Fold each of these.
Amino acid sequence: MENQQSRHSKEGGTVFVQEPNLKSGVGGLRDLHNLRWVGKVCGEGESLDKLVERSWLGEAEAKQVEQSFDFLMMMREWLHAGQGGAGDVLSLRRQGELAEAMGYPQPNILRKSEALMREVYGHMRTLNLLCNSTSTRLCQQRLGRPRGLWSFFAGWRGARRAADGFILQGAELQPEHPKVFDEDPARMVRVFRILQDQGSVPGAELKALMRTRFALLTEAVAQQKEVQETFLHILRQKGKVGRILRTMHETGVLGRMVPEFAPLTCLVQHEFFHRYTADEHTLVCLEQLDAMLGSKEPDLRKYAELYAKVEVPEILALAVLLHDTGKAELTRNHEEVGAANAVAVARRFGFWGRELQLMTFLVDHHMTLGTFARKNLDEPATIRDLARIVRDQERLDLLMLISAADVRAVAGKNNWSSWRELLVWNLYQKTKQMLAGEEEFLRVEDEKRAKQKEEVRAILSTTFTEDEVSQHLERMGPAYVRMCPPALVMRHLGAVHEFLERRISGADTLVPLVKWLDQSEEGHTEVIIVTWNRERLFSKIAGSFAVAGLNILSANIFTRRDDVVVDTFQVCNERMEPVTHPIDRSTFEKTLTEALGETEDHLNERIAEVGPTLWQRSLGEAEFPASLRVDQTSESGRTLIHVEAPDRVGLLHALTRAIADEGMQISGARITTEKGAALDTFLIEENSGEAVRGEDRLARLIQRLKGVVSR
């Protein structure tokens, strides 16, 4: 059993990993092998028939185990045949290939893959739950607990009655007898309140009994007032909800209490930010919410303060539970379907008026903070629009908690999710101030910007003249100081100073100035590029990085009012290491200088000759579809283009070239590459500097960009 626990830990600790190991993963083939060995060692027989005969497994359970094992064996054989040899990891690339080869009838490769993986996860979940539960019970018997399934209370030393037909053995809760749920089906929910109140865990016998008897929790029983109140009591216990709801889901009880959640079981999500199945992601969200309460961690302390003030924790928990239920309908706007589900659940649990409206609002707008955080947060109109949507502080606080739990529930923290979380928190703070009064908000924002400028001025004045510092900050615009730390501003101004000195010395100022700074601890190199603004500049920079075989991890671009461009890139080589080799650096600089002096055709030809980097080849094909969103709601009328797409060589160049081909330019951008995904935001305008006008022109650009990301 220790060996199995170690093996499971190495394979991700959950059934729902992105690329499951069919043999050694959680719920893999070895889980049944392990059960058979445990059965043999414990003298109960190593075959499923023997375990059924000796009442360790029910006949229906044994049949489920056999079916799941047979399915995974079939999948493993398909996998071996497809890859021409051994290997048990069902990679992203193989998922689509096998779904196609096995004849899944869905209309496209993503839907085929979803259907296949839903079956895979379902069967692995079955093997994990049944094999692990039975193995645990066999071990308990081996360790000296009485033989016979229901002799707990009489035979276990130290056992004590907990309540309502259940006994406590150490930290484990067990049933007094096998008819405990038949006597009163409402105990199927009350037992979870006992688990929560006692801080105990369900023993293997209790889990097995709940899984075989959960059908007793009929719709009529689930809608009894006492049962519903018990469930709501569980949801009201801040910091103690996630663990209990996970166990309810594992035993089938959660789907009986909230049928709207059941279709999310093992539902694969082909989205970059949701690498778990939909049900697992939701449960992790609830556990993240629990982790916030009373946390001393600096990153969580601010959320702990918000959570402590929540007056309706059951509404918040239900909103989190329901926030992605619309995805089961496979519609584009899952928030609307989820909101309809929220209305149904609220009414069923007796919520009306303000509470119903609040739950529906939270589900319908659970993505709103994330959407607004992509906009220009320095525009008062952005904050004003969000304040009009949320209307009061309670709604804003609850949305912030849902958004934070959602971001933190992605599969592993990374630079991108941390950056998103920071943006959303800044948006929350600004909107909080706006709700307190717009006049006060504007005053505080002005003071904040002035303070930031003074801090930067104080640092820069030790190296540069006061006039030079003032001109640089003024020409870079108000967002610059907020987005760039003083050390980076210092490097920018130093590069600009050196670039402009060329003009005085008579050097060729059309050649861009390129500065390289290795950030070894962070695994990348910072590249600052200073040059005069010109058409297709950003496109040619991106293309030159591609020709040099360098990966762009992130980028911030600024254009000063005197037409000097100051761009900062974080790049790495194909081994995901800083760019330290002189040849790599010189290849980029030479390519960029040549590209700026000629048409883009030659650059395009050179990019076409470049194959995928070692890093990109190792990722295989990304498992999420490309998405492209347009935002024209800013007060200035400027247009934001948001792109999420599988990364490939030359993608950024192709995107920026398409924008340039439509007679538009990029005035700002946030470029990020994370785990094989390109996550880019472009602020575009006409070449004249005016806002993009004409729906036809914008529609044509969107079609062109869609063609790029889907290629």
Amino acid sequence: MDKLEIHYTPKHGSWLNIAEIGLNLLTKQCLQR
């Protein structure tokens, strides 16, 4: 269980990073239009 928790935390963090990058790209596209 410990190993799974350690694995899960970075995955969750990276997913949040991807979401943030995606939102940034969307806002940039909206501003460019």
Amino acid sequence: SLPHSLYDLSPKTLEASVISETQGDKMNFENKPTLVKKIEAVTKEHFYQPDLAAFLEICDNIKQDPNGPEIALSALLEQLEQSAATYPESASLTLTLLDFCFKNCGYQFLFKLCRGDYLKKLKNLIEHGPYNLGIWNRLLTLIKVLGLAFSDHADFQPINALYQELLSQSIRFPNVQSTEVELLKRMIPPLGIPGALRLAQPAANTSQFLQGIRENLKYASLNRHAFDDLLQNLARSPSDSIKRTQLQNAAVRLQGFQKGQVLK
């Protein structure tokens, strides 16, 4: 007959069972797509700070793989489901990486978010909350920023629909910076504009945009002088759309880094 518990197993059998389970976990990990392995590796709870270089590399990998958005969204939301309630450090890193992806992986990533069951998973996470206060607020902030940024974007209406549905359920969302909403909105230009022209669109008011970033970004644990130098260098050619994009991405990355610093 089968043993009723681990206590019924002989030491040799127990050792063999543990070895088999470990080998099975290793085999499962080795069989996963490389992108999933990278995501799991950088969102482990023993990392207290986000690896920004690794996050950006993952974003590049997602954009280079036709199946990248689907693979990454599945891995990120699965990681979030497993960690939100019990591993706040891992959940924080996962949310930071997810935020990076929203802001750096382009149209296809957000389009896939709206077409799969990913928004349903985000909704389920909210309905099973609240979690650690820092994780709870960051999850709600992520949904709110997405909903506000793409409220008038036809392809991303499911995002705003989720935000409005949660509002109707009396979910209390944290306040968000308007600059954060605008930064995300700028990452995905309006529909109907040819791709070659989208990047070339001038910023509405470059000097105000730069000043808004300076005022709204918090600089805890960051070198303010170095960042100001970066802003000045990029602002010297306000007509250069590539430099503006670099500036926007730098601001987004620093915001993601800032959010990953402290779990409230």
